[in-house]
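User: Predict the structure for this protein chain, please.
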Amino acid sequence: MGITKLAAQSSVVSRPERDFVLVCARTHLDASHRDRLRELIEGPLNWEFLASLASQHYLAPLIHYHLSGELSGAVPSEVRASFEAVAQLAARWNLFLSAKLVTLLQAFKQSAVPAVPFKGPALASLAYGNVALRPSVDLDFVLPQQHLPRAYDVLIAAGFRPSLDPTAPRDAAYLASGRAGQHSFLSEENLIVELHTEKSLRYLPAPLNWEDLRAGLASVLVAGHEIQTYSTEDNLVLLSVHGAKHFWERLIWMCDLAELA
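Assistant: Here is the predicted structure, written as structure tokens:
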């Protein structure tokens, strides 16, 4: 029974669709990668399962990027069209996020809130050089806990609804206590913004000096504007902890580290 079970697990792990997704989890393909993709395309592939894997691991834009190049003629046209539609949808959302990111950073700056964008379009620009290649769901900012009240004011003025209402006595008391907590905001466009502080990032194995991190910020271009985010080296540390926290359930998180490296 044990051997049979092991063989069944092995056959699942080695499915060609998984190999296909793994090969595409990068921005640049060398000759061996391209040969492997051609070999996989020529063999039997369950394109529906492959699309499901791509969605699960947030890799549809990268797969479309590779399939729209020299391999495009080897892929069924309906498959190519399906990946193109998904990639275009992700690109439009990322462009929307990028514009919102720039607008919020300007609002934070005007209110003297030292918020640093983390992950999202900033990471896509830093690691991939193209915000369309790495899907993002929401916007994340890191700031010192002491600046939370002003950050709340900025986001509420921008039309975001907070999960904790600073005008409600109970929530106001919780915020004033300075305890760790999740700070999420939702806009009418269903855009989620999350604020992280040295207290809410408590899953880090050792306390970080956030002032030192701010001293080594890197500049990236997002929506035609130069913004600052954490450096490549600091992102490698922060994203490694983030991936471990979530048990590396998405392949895109490993791809982020590879592209940064």
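The chain has a mean pLDDT of 91.
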